Amino acid sequence: MSSEIAYSVLDLATIIEGGSPVDTFPRSLDLARHVEKWGYKRYWLAEHHNIPNVASSATAVLIGYIAGGTSTIRVGSGGIMLPNHAPLIVAEQFGTLASLYPGRIDLGLGRAPGSDQATALEIRGANFHKPHNFAGDIQKLQHFFSADSNGSRIRAIPGEGLDIPLWILGSSTDSALVAAQMGLPYAFASHFAPAQFLEAMQLYRQHFRPSQNLSEPYVIACVNVVAADTDLEANRLATSIRQFILGIVSGRRRPLQPPVDDMAPLWTSFEEEAVNHMLSYAFIGSPKTLKAKLRTFLENTGVNEIMATAHVFDHAARLRSYELFAATMKEMLTATVQ
């Protein structure tokens, strides 16, 4: 296990039962300020649409809010869904962010719509039926951000000539190959799509071509983390994420629910199996339990960075979860150095 593994945060600006985006956003900023102090490297927000428990739809706006309220942590997208946007608009938005917060903005790019098909049709209009060239749009972004584009007829201002790191996001092997062939870092959504994680990493590393952006493969694994002082409390808190995933499986999405003592009345055996599969890469427990699971995961995967997402209902418990996760990672990395 490497001693240089970074740890970061993925936030969906989750709306809790009884809450609204009005109180969700300040909680996200408070979390960002805390994890900045606890040594987290980056804080990413994900683009999703038409989901009643996710408030990060206007991702670039929210990135500006978080970056403006912090000072050192990198802030970015996990990710911007390119089928929904013209590359020029993305370049201008992130060029603006990078101009406001130099050296702190990441641009993670995904190829999914981040929504259901009806919502995707509403977002994309007539473009919905046109084939989408993910790699081609990434190349357009690279051109807009290049200093060499200053002689072009169409330019991204702001954006042109800025060093904005691009990341490829994926939940399948397709995006892994795009990232490898373009020589870009790769972030995998193992927090909800674990099935192809190991295969995708293998393909990415096998086919990676060094580029001016990156000399060797770099992988982020996004995972679910619910940490507490005891295993019992962590497992109880984790019933909120189980209910969250159950909403995805069943199609009955609701704001994030408070923890319960017993999940049995809430799901069928089929739904339980599906939820547990989606949570294959979930780290739930006390620091001692986390340490054992994390060490095995890191040794087996060799990832460069872990991005933790924590759907915990109570804000104080959510902060505590991220605090314990950071302390556990620091302890493991320190032990590796020694």
Explain what the structure shows:
This protein is α/β, with parallel strands linked by helices. Helix content is 44%, strand content 15%. The chain has 12 helices and 9 strands. Helix 1 (21-37) links the parallel strand 1 (6-11) and strand 2. Helix 6 (173-182) packs parallel to helix 7 (197-207) and helix 11 (287-301) crosses helix 12 (315-337). The longest helix is centred in the last third of the chain and has 23 residues, at 315-337. It is globular, with a radius of gyration of 19 Å.
Classify the beta-strand content into a percent band. Answer: 5-15%
- Number of domains as seen in the coordinates: 1
Mean pLDDT comes to: 92
| CATH architecture annotation | Alpha-Beta Barrel
CATH superfamily: Luciferase-like domain
The gyration radius over C-alpha positions equals 19 Å
Order of strands across the widest beta sheet?
1-2-3-4-5-6-7-9
SSE order, as H and E? EHEHEHEHHEHEHEHHHEHEH
Shape: globular
* Euclidean distance between termini CA atoms: 12 Å
Number of helices: 12
Please identify the structural class as seen in this structure: alpha/beta
Instruction: Please report the first level of CATH classification, the CATH class.
Output: Alpha Beta
Helix fraction by DSSP (H/I, runs of at least 4): 40-55%
Quote the CATH topology. Answer: TIM Barrel
* Low-confidence parts: none
Total beta strands: 9
